[in-house]
Amino acid sequence: MKPLGLPGLRFHHFGLAVSNPDQAFLMLYTMGYAAGVQVFDPLQRVNLAMRHHPAMPDVEVIWPGDEPSPIDKMVKRTGSMIYHMCYQCPDPGAVVAALEEAGLDTLEVSPPTPAVLFEGNEVSFYTVDGFGLIELLRCSTEATQRSSSDQAALEATVGSAG
Predict the structure, then answer these.
(1) Is 55 helix (H, G, I), strand (E, B) or coil?
(2) Residues 6+ apart with CB under 8 A from 49
(3) What does pTM read for this prediction?
(4) How far apart are CA 140 and CA 91, in angstroms?
(5) Does residue 123 contact residue 112 with C-beta atoms inside 8 Å?
(6) CA 103 from centroid of its chain's CA atoms
(7) What are the C-alpha distances in Å from 112 to residues 26, 68, 103, 115, 122?
(8) DSSP string across 31-92
(9) Residue 145 and residue 87: Cα distance in Å, rounded?
């Protein structure tokens, strides 16, 4: 059976939840990842930091802030784990509709919300039965996968390593 594919859908990053980011940062640094943007997102109530690698998938490191957050129970149970995959797309509603049309049950976990880490672009979260949690990052175009500041940081790191 030929894969269907969803036009405009591109992998963006893995989401790694941790109780404290220090060991995750060290591991990613050791593997050659460069630091990207780091922010506190008051709408999601979590700290977020991007890590980039020229040959491997981006990783978003997520850890609790001072107030209760959506990842508190998860990091209390597991300490750390990759818990979502993010895809960028121009129309998240169309992606969800296509998944459901293909026979996949989806449930909205978090409605579209502006994301500080992604320059105000909206993110929404869905569980897909038999697959797990996905984040859909709305991008106005088939633009770059990385923000301009993250891309500059990666290029500077790669350039200084040569």
Answers:
(1) coil
(2) 21, 25, 35, 36, 37, 38, 39, 60, 61
(3) 0.84
(4) 8
(5) yes
(6) 25
(7) 32, 20, 23, 9, 5
(8) TTPEEEEEEEETTTTEEEEEEE-SSS-EEEEEEE-SS--TTHHHHHHHSEEEEEEEEEES-H
(9) 10
Residue 159: per-residue pLDDT: 53
How do the domains of the chain map onto residue ranges?
10-161
Determine the Cα–Cα distance for residues 119 and 10; give it in Å rounded to an integer: 18
- 57 versus 161: which is more confidently predicted? 57
Q: CB-hemisphere CA count at 13 Å for 49? A: 19
CB–CB of 61/48 below 8 Å?
Answer: yes
What type of residue sits at position 78? Answer: T
- pLDDT tens digits, 20-63: 999 999 999 999 999 999 999 999 999 999 999 999 999 999 99
Whether the CB-CB separation of 49 and 60 falls below 8 Å is answered with yes
- Superfamily of domain covering 10-161: 2,3-Dihydroxybiphenyl 1,2-Dioxygenase, domain 1 (3.10.180.10)
Which residues, 6 or more positions from 119, have their beta carbon under 8 angstroms from its beta carbon?
147
The DSSP code for 93 is H
